[in-house]
Amino acid sequence: MKPYRIMLADDHVLFRQGIKNILENAVDLTVVGEAGDGIKLLELLKKTIADLVVLDISMPNLRGIEAAREIKAVSPDTKVLILTMHREKEYVYHAVSAGAEGYLLKEDADTELFAAIENIRKGKPYISPLLSGELTREFIQASRKGSPLSPSTPLTLREREILKLIAEGASNKDIADLLYISIRTVENHRANIMRKLGIKQTANLVKYAIREGYTSPGATSDG
């Protein structure tokens, strides 16, 4: 059996290295690449074939859920396993809606990582045991009603990047410097984001970003 090619994305280097060491002890698994943020991950995927991407939600530049959406656009055959500390069911809904095949809590990783990978490798979905019971019931109920668990976003990739930075307290100049674009371009993107979402105040934009998983409350600025 040829090795199952895995790519890792997590901004915590020591944690990423720990997962890599665990995976490389398995004879049929190989780590083909690593990235510390979502943008670098997507760049790496354009050059390297991966069967599975294991990624965190809380990453700089492009968060894991948004990265999952882009992975599916760039490389539809690549599977996605979210490996995160976030237990809130809303994160699971957004991850699944973004195309992720698995959702594993970091606290379960020591006992469940290989099980999660094996399930996904066999074409089966996977959710951490600590979450699966309640979530399975809610997924079943939602599917019976024909209602989505999470709405799709009308925003482009660039707009989602900018929304994340706005929610984290970055000024228009900060965003322009980070993304190597003009302040006028940032202002135009900001206006388009607010128009598409029907939001008129920055405070409500930040609330939307937190609710939709673009950022976490602890990452936002008080100013």
TrEMBL record:
Keyword Glycoprotein: no
PROSITE patterns noted in UniProt: HTH_LUXR_1, HTH_LUXR_2, RESPONSE_REGULATORY
Domain of life: Bacteria
Residues of the Response regulatory domain: 5-121
SMART domains, alphabetized: HTH_LUXR (SM00421), REC (SM00448)
UniProtKB keywords: DNA-binding, Phosphoprotein, Transcription, Transcription regulation
Gene Ontology biological-process annotations: phosphorelay signal transduction system; regulation of DNA-templated transcription
HTH luxR-type domain residues: 148-213
Positions carrying 4-aspartylphosphate: D56
SUPFAM superfamilies: C-terminal effector domain of the bipartite response regulators, CheY-like
Alphabetical list of Pfam families matching this protein: GerE (PF00196), Response_reg (PF00072)
GO molecular function ontology, one term from the record: DNA binding
PANTHER family: NITRATE_NITRITE RESPONSE REGULATOR PROTEIN NARP (PTHR43214:SF41), TWO-COMPONENT RESPONSE REGULATOR (PTHR43214)
Protein name, per record: Oxygen regulatory protein NreC
